[in-house]
Design a protein that fits this description.
Rossmann fold; alpha/beta; EC 1.3.1.76; 7 strands; oxidoreductase; about 300 residues; 2 domains
C-alpha cells in the first residue's frame, strides 16, 4: 500500500516577495521629506530614473541627490496634480506627469486626499502604487532591507509591524559573514562560464547544469567559495568536473579555505535559536543572486 503524500498548508495573507528589476524604468515619487528620502535611495540604487515632484525646501539628502544625480533624478519644484480640482479624480489629473506614464508611483506627502486620488488613478492606469504608511493603498511594500554588494535581504510584515521587521533585519544583518561578497562573486563567475558551455532553459542540459551547480555549492563551504573567483579554479571545475560529470571539492582544485566559517560559528553561537539556518540561507543566496529574471507587473 502506497503512502499518502502530504503537502504544506497554504496560509493566505502573505506578500509575494520579489526582486523587482527597475533598471531604466520610470518612477514617480511625490514628496520631498524624510519618508520620500528613505524611498529615494532604494530607487536610485535599483537604477530607476526618478521623477520627483515636491515644492522646496527638500530634505537635505534629497537636495544632495538632485545636485549629484542629474542623469537619474529629475525634480519638478511644485505640488502634484490639480489643486483647483472639484473632484478627487481631477485632483490627481496632472497633465504634465500623468501616473500612467510611469512604471511605478509612490506618494510620501501629508495630504490624505491627494494620496488617495493618486492611488485610485494609478490603479486605474494599472501602475503599481505605494502610499506611505497606508497599507491598503499599497500594491507593494519596501520592508526592512540590508545589502552587502549583490546580496540583498528583505524582511516584511506586510505593513503590520515595520519596527518588528527592522529588529529582525538588524539581527540578520549582524549574522551575515564578512566575506559573503567573495562567495557570491566566485559562484556568480562560475555560473556565468557554465552557462556559456551549457546554454538553454528547460531542456535536459539545463536541468543537468542546475543540478551540477547546486551539488557543487553543497560540496564547498561558504568560506571556500571565494576561491572560485580564480580563473584557474573555475577552469578545473568546468574541465575536470562539469565535462567529466563529476562534482569537485575544494581540495580537488587546490582551493584554500578562507575565514568565513569561523565567523559564522561565532555568530551562530551568540545568536537566537532560529539563526543557525542563516549560513545555509546565505549560501543559497550566493547561487540565486544572479538568477533573478526581469520582473514586470
Amino acid at each position: 500500500m502506497s503512502e499518502t503524500k502530504t503537502y504544506p498548508e497554504i496560509k493566505r495573507g502573505a506578500s509575494l516577495l520579489l526582486a523587482w528589476r527597475l533598471e531604466g524604468k520610470r518612477v514617480l515619487l511625490i514628496g520631498g521629506g524624510v519618508v520620500a528620502a528613505s524611498r529615494l535611495g532604494f530607487l536610485l540604487e535599483s537604477g530607476a530614473h526618478v521623477t520627483l515632484v515636491s515644492p522646496a525646501p527638500l530634505e537635505p539628502s534629497i537636495a544632495h541627490r538632485v545636485a549629484t544625480e542629474p542623469e537619474h533624478l529629475t525634480w519638478h519644484e511644485r505640488g502634484y496634480g490639480n489643486p483647483d480640482a472639484a473632484t478627487p479624480e481631477e485632483m490627481a489629473a496632472d497633465k504634465e506627469l500623468p501616473v500612467g506614464d510611469f512604471d511605478m508611483v509612490l506618494t510620501a506627502v501629508d495630504d490624505v486626499q491627494l494620496s488617495q486620488a493618486v492611488c485610485t488613478a494609478a490603479r486605474t492606469a494599472r501602475t503599481p502604487v505605494n502610499v506611505a504608511d497606508v497599507p491598503p493603498e499599497c500594491d507593494f511594500y519596501f520592508g526592512a532591507q540590508v545589502r552587502r554588494g549583490p546580496l540583498q535581504v528583505m524582511v516584511s510584515t506586510s505593513g503590520a509591524g515595520p519596527k518588528v521587521a527592522v529588529i529582525v533585519r538588524d539581527t540578520v544583518a549582524n549574522a551575515i559573514p564578512a566575506d559573503v561578497e567573495d562567495a557570491i562573486a566566485g559562484v556568480g563567475a562560475l555560473r556565468t562560464e557554465l552557462r556559456q558551455r551549457a546554454p538553454g532553459v528547460g531542456g535536459a542540459l539545463s536541468k543537468r547544469r542546475m543540478r551540477w551547480m547546486i551539488d557543487t555549492c553543497d560540496a564547498w563551504r561558504l568560506d571556500q567559495m571565494g576561491a572560485m573567483k580564480d580563473p584557474e579554479v573555475r577552469r578545473q571545475l568546468l574541465d575536470d568536473g562539469w565535462e567529466q560529470h563529476k562534482v569537485l571539492r575544494p581540495g580537488d582544485v587546490g582551493a584554500a579555505p578562507g575565514g568565513v566559517k569561523a565567523l559564522v560559528g561565532d555568530v551562530v553561537r551568540a545568536a537566537p535559536a532560529w539563526l543557525p539556518t542563516l549560513a545555509a540561507f546565505v549560501a543559497g543566496a550566493a547561487v540565486g543572486v544572479a538568477w533573478v529574471d526581469r520582473v514586470r507587473r
